Amino acid sequence: DGSSRFGPGRKFGNFGAVGAAWIFSKADFAEQGLSFLSFGKLRGSYGTTGNDQISDYGYYDTYQPTTGTNGLYPTKLANPNFSWEVNKKLELAGEFGFFKDRLMISASWYRNRSSNQLVGYSLPALTGFNSIQANLPATVENRGWEFQLMSSNVQGTDFNWTTNFTMTLPK
User: Is the whole model's pTM more than 0.90, yes or no?
Assistant: First the structure.
């Protein structure tokens, strides 16, 4: 990806992802040994994305005209050194169907790590500015479990009743 929000030499970032899934309920061992299971899938994915959600051309100084005399005063400091914020996401999950998929259960574990965060880095008051756009050299992690239960309780010609329940346990 490329973004004009970053200075020279920092405009481009490489991000990618990979994912795979296996519907194991179609395998011979599952059809013979797991007859109670109408659907079974294991899946996983890992990927990185970049974040450039800052103002356009934010690496430049900005100025405003003064009142009265012909002049300019600085309103924002330049920083050509900040670059992409990076988000790394990992997920592993299983999906299971019972009673001809009238009852579906899924469980997934996820981990999201955000590093190189784009922040307004606080400056001392004597600089004349509150902050400067910069990358914070820290990693923030969110991880947890998500469970989903879906049931098709009634399937009629004039009336259908389905239930969905989701529970997330974040950390």
Answer: no
